Structure formats: C-alpha cells, structure tokens
Amino acid sequence: MKKISVCVPCFNEEKNIEIAYQRIKDVLKKMSEYDHEIIFGDNSSTDNSEKILKKLAERDHQVKVIINNRNFGPERSYKNIVFSSTGDVVISIPCDMQEPPEMIPQFIEEWEKGNLVVFGQKTKSEEGKIKYNCRKLYYKIIKKFSNIPQYEQVTGFGCMDCSVVKVLKGLNEPNMNLRYLIADLGYPVKLIPYTQAVRENGKSSYSVGKYFDFAISSLVETSSAPLHIITVFGFICALISLFFGLVYLIYKLLYWDTFSAGVAPVLISVFFLGSVQLMSIGFIGEYIGVILTKVTKRPLVTEKERINFEEK
Length: 312
Fold this sequence. Notes:
Blueprint: E1 3-10, H1 17-29, E2 35-42, H2 49-59, E3 63-68, H3 74-83, E4 89-92, H4 104-112, E5 117-125, H5 129-145, E6 158-161, H6 162-169, H7 178-185, E7 189-196, H8 208-222, H9 225-254, H10 264-295, E8 303-307
Parallel strand pairs: 1-2, 1-4, 2-3, 5-7
Antiparallel strand pairs: 3-8, 4-6, 5-6
C-alpha cells in the first residue's frame, strides 16, 4: 500500500489546527487505498498550538508532531518536516487553510500519472486585490531577473515524489524554497490552478518588512543580475561624473572671474553617489549573507520534542 505524507508547518495557529486536521483527515479517509501520515511542525509557537497538537497526536496516532526549540524560520522548519516524512509522496499544505486540502486527490491523481512534482498555482485570491497584485508584480520581477525559469503564483503547495525529496536532502540548502529549487533542478512541474481563500482565523506572521526581506533574499538566491546592474550603473555614473567635471572645468577656465559652480550641485552629487554606494554595498552584503548561510554547518533545527515517530 502506498503512503501519503501530509506536511503541515504551523506557527501560532491555535485556531486553525483542529480545522486543518479535520479537513485533511476527511479527504484522506475517502482515499482508503492509501496509507497516510499527517506531520505537524510547530515552529515554537507562543500560543496554545503545542497543547492542541499533543492532544491530536494522542487521539490519532497517524498524526505526528515536531516541536522546535525556537523559531528557526518557515523555510528551515518546513524543510525539517519534509525530510522527516516516510511516504511515497509528500504533500505540503500550510496550516492557515488558505490553500484547500480538498485538492489532495487531484495532486495524487497527477502523481499517479507519473508527474514527480505537482504544484497548485493561484489564479485568483480572496485575500485582497492589492496584496495579490503586489505578489503578482514580485513574481514577474523574479522571473525577469532569474537565471532559471520560474513558476508564477506558486508557493510550494502541492506534492513531490519521495525520489525528489531524496535529491533535496542531498543539497546544502538551509533555506529551502521549493519554487526555485525545483526549477533549478529541472524537474517538470504539473500545475493545477486554484483560488486562494482568505485567512479566516488568526493573523499572518509575515509583516511588510518580512515580505520585503523575503523578496530581496529570493532575488539574490535566484539571480546574479543585481551585481551586473550595479557594475553597469557604476560605470555609467562614472562617465556622467567625468563629463560634467570636464564641462565645469572648461566653463571655469573660460569664465574664470564670473562663473561660480555653487555648493548645490556638489551636495546633490555626493548624496546621489552615496545612495548608489549604500545600495550596492547592501546587495553585495545580501550575497555574502547567502554564502555564509550555505557554508555554515549547523543543524536545520533543534527539536524540543517528537511525537508518534517510530524510534530508529
């Protein structure tokens, strides 16, 4: 009997855990030809999520729980959950229930046809037009600058064959973003359109600042274009500065007694070039940060507790 592993990362989702469990369980009960496990990964929640997850695990031994010592970030925690799965196929779904668990049969159907990777692709969203369009713009920018093909409106909601998970385990990628990694590895992806629901309970842990940080990190990890742009822009600024410097020099030589350059152009040039330098240093710092993350040998997460996992 083939086995389905459903991986559910969560952080402060006390109002959604029971709902997520019930909806996922209702779907899996109808798929009796498959064995299954549901792995909840709690990223050190500060609400009652841990207590609720422990009660679920007591009630249903097909529910497995990983509780982290601290919040290691969504990517590292999610990676640890996926790598702890034992199924023939791994399904990823957030606990906030904005992505419908009812699509699981569709994912499995496409997987049975031989598709190693099947992702849901948002074609509509009930979360608000502004937020959706901002994400749409973000995906287009990443796609434009990326060195490899990218999938728009794909978050990782979907399924992967266990052979793909095995390949991912061999990579040194602490911050695993499936959308980029799968594209980089060259696996064909079957996309299934869906409408993203609005979050009914709780509040997203992602602020505007976190979204911006995630966008910059994504751009840096998928493309070296910003470094080339900085180099070309610096060269252009140098040529412009040289041109204006020569113009000012000629004017000063021709009109020695009457021409006054003034302080304003100097101040504007200094502030402009200073801004360019700070932006350039920032981008270089982001790339150095990515390199540091990859070369630093640390565990993905340290776990406080594992529940319903068989001892090896």
